[in-house]
Amino acid sequence: MQRSRFLVMLCGMALHAGFVCPAIFADEGMWLFNNLPRKQLAEKYKFDPTAEWTDHVMKSSVRFNSGGSGSFVSSTGLVLTNHHVGADTLHKISTAGHDYYKEGFWAKTHAEEPKAPDLELNVLQSIEDVTGRVNAAVKPEMSSSEAFVARRGVISTIEKESFDKTGLRSDVVTLYQGGQYHLYRYKKYTDIRLVFAPEFEIAFFGGDPDNFEYPRYDLDVCLFRAYEDDKPAKIEHFLKWSKSGAIDGELVFVSGHPGKTDRLNTVAALKYIRDVQAPAMLDWLRRREIMLQQFGERSEEQSRIAKEDLFGVQNSRKAYYGRIAGLQDPEILGRKEAAERAIRAKFDSDPQMKKSYGDAWEKIEQTQKTRREIGVQVNVLEGARGFNSTVFSIARTLVRLAEENEKPNRERLPEFSEAARDSLELGLYSTAPIYDDLELAKLTDSLGYLLEKLGGENPLAQKVMNGKNPAARAAELVGGTKIKDVAERKRIAAGGRKEIAESKDPLIVLARLVDPESRAIRKKLEEQVVEIERQAYAQISRAQFEMHGTSTYPDATFTLRLSYGPVKGYEENGKTIDPLTTMGGAFQHATAHGNRSPWKLPDSWQKHEGDIDPKTPYNFVSTCDIIGGNSGSPVINRAGEFVGIIFDGNIQSLVGDFVYDERQNRAVSVHSASIIESLKKIYGAAPLAEELGH
Amino acid sequence: MQRSRFLVMLCGMALHAGFVCPAIFADEGMWLFNNLPRKQLAEKYKFDPTAEWTDHVMKSSVRFNSGGSGSFVSSTGLVLTNHHVGADTLHKISTAGHDYYKEGFWAKTHAEEPKAPDLELNVLQSIEDVTGRVNAAVKPEMSSSEAFVARRGVISTIEKESFDKTGLRSDVVTLYQGGQYHLYRYKKYTDIRLVFAPEFEIAFFGGDPDNFEYPRYDLDVCLFRAYEDDKPAKIEHFLKWSKSGAIDGELVFVSGHPGKTDRLNTVAALKYIRDVQAPAMLDWLRRREIMLQQFGERSEEQSRIAKEDLFGVQNSRKAYYGRIAGLQDPEILGRKEAAERAIRAKFDSDPQMKKSYGDAWEKIEQTQKTRREIGVQVNVLEGARGFNSTVFSIARTLVRLAEENEKPNRERLPEFSEAARDSLELGLYSTAPIYDDLELAKLTDSLGYLLEKLGGENPLAQKVMNGKNPAARAAELVGGTKIKDVAERKRIAAGGRKEIAESKDPLIVLARLVDPESRAIRKKLEEQVVEIERQAYAQISRAQFEMHGTSTYPDATFTLRLSYGPVKGYEENGKTIDPLTTMGGAFQHATAHGNRSPWKLPDSWQKHEGDIDPKTPYNFVSTCDIIGGNSGSPVINRAGEFVGIIFDGNIQSLVGDFVYDERQNRAVSVHSASIIESLKKIYGAAPLAEELGH
Question: Does A335 touch chain B (CB under 8 A)?
Fold first, then answer.
């Protein structure tokens, strides 16, 4: 399961960057749609992606702004993604009486399709290289602080111009960590409704123990429908369902949105992740895991309320275990060190290269020191780990909105820019339920975290606590705020700076109190770390481009990428792992674990065991290169047809943040055939299978 | 549940100390048997403990060296303690086929009583003040390093002399953090056999959610029998079972072994715990909790293997939450600060006092800085958090044993002194099972912890890893060692230093590698922190004795203490909590939670619901002042009869590490009547009830 791992990364600050490595092995790569690996595909697979093929795949691919991928699979607006990508919405539309997340759902008519409160889907329409314009705005004589401001300014301006001109969501994306800047334009859908979801038990069959493992037997899918003008959207580009689905050995493609990789990081940057960033993240995840477990144990209803959060945290925790295990492996880091030594030796041997680019590694080594100094404050304050709650997140947005609105567009924090405003408001005015008791548990724990991390004597920490202990302070905040009410949020936002300045709402007061210090630490991070790293990595990138051209792929940035490779098994501890499992295998797997949770099949499956064809292919692995954020990505054959949907990577794929190794790294998918088989034979949803062309 | 919390503390280094506070409130106090609060008892309760009463209670009280308390309850050697104190043994004697810990047990005959592999019970026989002799060995002109060595030397000598003379286990106990030294002599029992345990489900009914909560419904008891010469020991001093058991409002006493409190710490020392020690401990506990959960999820057998460890960790984690919540409460710390200011002002106003004692607080403030500097290394190396496994613990003991054996007794590490040798060997040569897969999971996680804490570039860390990642290194260590075999341990121990030096056993090699640095950091802690604090706290203590006399109690030290107070309910959130629950209430509590785990009553209880008297008192609370280590302590009435057994404190008692507040702090016990009722009516163990006098 990859979604939440990426979500978690989104919630934190972007704390890493990368450098371009020229050596591409095997089927490695998360390729840009405007720079596909035509040579490799032609040589190894005799495949040439035509402009039409590429455009069709691109426009059929969907980004879930909540942190995952998906695809259009019908002209009638059906969007297929993972159950665990839809989970955020499934949870938000659930109540004590109706648990969509746990029990599953099928809307027999359009009228029965419940609307997601805050889901935004993006479909990429075009890519434009704006590197020249961005770089022209940053002058060599500028300090890193000036450079950061100038760069942010020109990016905001480009985005606004594009948005004004096209009406499309327009994002300038930093690629090769500053080597290139591309403008991505997206068509946006914000009226998204639920059509189908299976039960949690089968979507996440095998639970945490089986997560990131293979073989697997999960029906990790759900179907939404995009609406426009209150009608199902008419979709031109959608993926047709393959007759056979994925076949052992065939070449397949994954078109999706990998969230973030650090493959091109310098060794110093990797060691920072290994020794500081990842351990701190893991402590934070384990802390929340225990807190949510304890909360959920209290009652059935609390268990329901906490479940989606808990699942996300467990998923991230397991993913981070793999991440840190990779960095703690001397072989992997040794390979990185050897590669870095080789490239630095090359630079050192060329005086001109040395002069232009040679100090990049030292610069990045320096910024790691700054990261170590400010990391805790960044996480606690700007990363809001000290205030983990929906209400604080709303309060901070309101406080900042009032301040940012008064600035010219180009000077605003990017998330408050005009181009981003619609997306911001979709979240801010979401009608998703806010549960007081969960808010209280999270905020109590998180204020305790703040005290631990900043220290009890820290003046800001003492002001935050207001003379109380974490539990009492959280109760005062959650009990006293009115911003749980959407109308109140709108009222405060309309009142602007004056309203914020005079507000007595305890959460607005808290967000106001914290904001100066939080903004200051963010500024320090941006200007003394991010900008310096961007320049340093850009130096390395440019040198590499000079030496090797741009026939490579940049680190993942939650933008659309294409991966490729065959459906293929692997060897593990001397055993051969078959690439495909079957639906019948799910029943055997349940029996092997005594049918105890999390290996208990849902009633619907037990009831219909005799109805399904047990040989139906169920899950499969391919060598496609993916990472968190790719969850829900369609798997496509040469004909551009849908043959499966990514939902996980195996345990050996978790080091994919840093390296790709074709020997064992595998992407795990649900096979297209099993989706149709279960819709028809288990869920009695033949009309839906028909809408998908079956 | 208090046991494991104390066990965990035992496993770490003694990192705190205390100062004597003269103000005793209400029923506060963990009193020394040779300095009971006669005045308070006489004034408030008109009770005068006679020498006979005191001697009888003392000699009926039992210390479980594994980290808890208990009492003799028959002339035939029966020892009553908590199920969770016996858990360590219940787990060790269990196999895949017979899970004593989960299923419970009753031995109908002596022949059926299984023997604990490494349990030692201590019964206090006498106390002797040796303060003068200890202090005389430490000269004013000595450096703190010399002072530490001299003090340790004289203590070892006193212990050995006493042991040689009496044959009794002889421990010199540091009281008032150095204000006094007393010699405690114990009769020792090492042939301990299991007689009765109920099911885990009822011993820990309500599980983690109900742990440290009240009202409660737990039968947290088990019965062992002490043997001598392969026959049931003949016990002169044992507690007679009261007819009525504890009654609302009556004065009761708790005679047990509170493990450790920090009530008398200076504010600087408390802030160190709040900001550094406790957060680090909680991260460590949560890490292990997740690891053990994941391990246990894999299969029923792995769940069984990990369960006792997991339960201990969860118990400690919940206890530490209460502990840190107390320190993060400005009211509690504010009270401490005010008290400290007052006493320092008094010192400042008296030039002689100021001169003799005035710099004590600054000294302790300084040592907190040293603690911050060395804390991580102490925990990882000497605390062995980097090598968490039974096999490492055995290997380290063997390596040190060979080295310490060559030193004169007075220069040895205390755990290797001659007086402690029997106890050491009982553990070292224990036949308790060692599970390879659990060892592997623990050691893998823990080597990862070592890398995180020391940093991947640390030279010792790199040597420890031997060029491998944590999983591969742990597999090499656990797979390659032979010290899982007791005979091999004995062979190595017999071979002495030469055997250790030449050993190729990977765990011996590892322990040998780590030992110099580990010993060095321990030395630094002992000489630059512990000794300085001991002298500084002793300064404060002596000043207090001068001002107020010694009519107070020292911080807990896992030695026998007496607490007192009435059986009494309390107010919580405006609600009155009754002091007693009933056996019938257990069924209602289960129903209120839908009978789902951990509120599922065992089959035996469900089957015999109609047989028991539902009004039988079950659990009760009293104001007695207890802490971790007190688990299993007998609750005694004025007549010296057994009326209940301590098994927990309520959530408000968890700050008891630092302060006692009679308003809500409550000790939670199993009522004597419910033990008899369940033995007779639920477990069909009438002969056992008869042996207890019923």
Answer: no
